[in-house]
């Protein structure tokens, strides 16, 4: 339980910090999500570099996505992605049924509008990791019923 | 190795973020250390609450400090404090010979002036944890030869 706690609590504090500075008029409110996403991006880049230091070269994109779902997700969230689906044309859907960074929010629809700020960092995290593996992507997330987060990874390769 | 990586990298990004915002003129530079310390304080509060949820009541201050050195430090840094000394009058010195958050900085005196910003968060972390256990304290850190950080916990109880 406590293993992922330092990361989780620090993540919450970062959100708090960025939103509080915005309220003080120091930054624009609309840029908060972008800031969180950017921070996630850089953490994802650094993390994937360490994780893939000694791994074999990846066969293809699907191989990369599997690595994200297993090793990468386990390193950050201490569990694997529960479900990976793909249309084999560049779109991947990763589903985490018990997403840790939303665990503190109450289940139910009441706080659903608060969810985006708890997902932005993770979207950036995945995008940064993929980016360092040479896969340009657009990463979005959605959450239907609260604790079951469904990070939806829409991925479009830009350069061939 | 990779277990503490997400926390470590996020910690570095937070420092980066706070210092970059300051450079853009959004905040005063002198307040950065305080901001990091405050963030650490709140993370320490949250963390100690989770860690002590099921522990027995602490006998005395020394008992609390031992908990910080073992369980608390292990949770955050995946290793224990190497050396705890005290004068039994409220001053405790915790020494970590391989402090993880400084591991990325090169050994040697060249970057010694960069150390404070990598220590501020941890000082707050310890102060927050102690504060939630009812121990008011002043926490400072020093680092002599680079990778051997010596978080110096000067603790003065204010209320009796």
From TrEMBL, chains A, B:
Q: Where in the cell?
A: Endoplasmic reticulum; Golgi apparatus, cis-Golgi network
Matching entries from CDD domains are given as: TRAPPC6A_Trs33
Protein's UniProt keywords contain Endoplasmic reticulum? yes
A GO biological-process term? nervous system development
A Pfam family cross-referenced in the UniProt record is TRAPP
Check the record and name the Gene3D superfamilies matching this protein: Trafficking protein particle complex subunit 3
The record ties this protein, via InterPro entries, to:
NO_sig/Golgi_transp_ligand-bd, TRAPP_component, TRAPPC6/Trs33
UniProt keyword terms in alphabetical order: Endoplasmic reticulum, Golgi apparatus, Neurogenesis
Q: Which PANTHER family match?
A: TRAFFICKING PROTEIN PARTICLE COMPLEX SUBUNIT 6B
According to its UniProt entry, what is the function of this protein?
Component of a transport protein particle (TRAPP) complex that may function in specific stages of inter-organelle traffic. Specifically involved in the early development of neural circuitry, likely by controlling the frequency and amplitude of intracellular calcium transients implicated in the regulation of neuron differentiation and survival.
Query: What is the designated name of this protein?
Result: Trafficking protein particle complex subunit 6B
**Which species does this protein come from?**
Dicentrarchus labrax (European seabass)
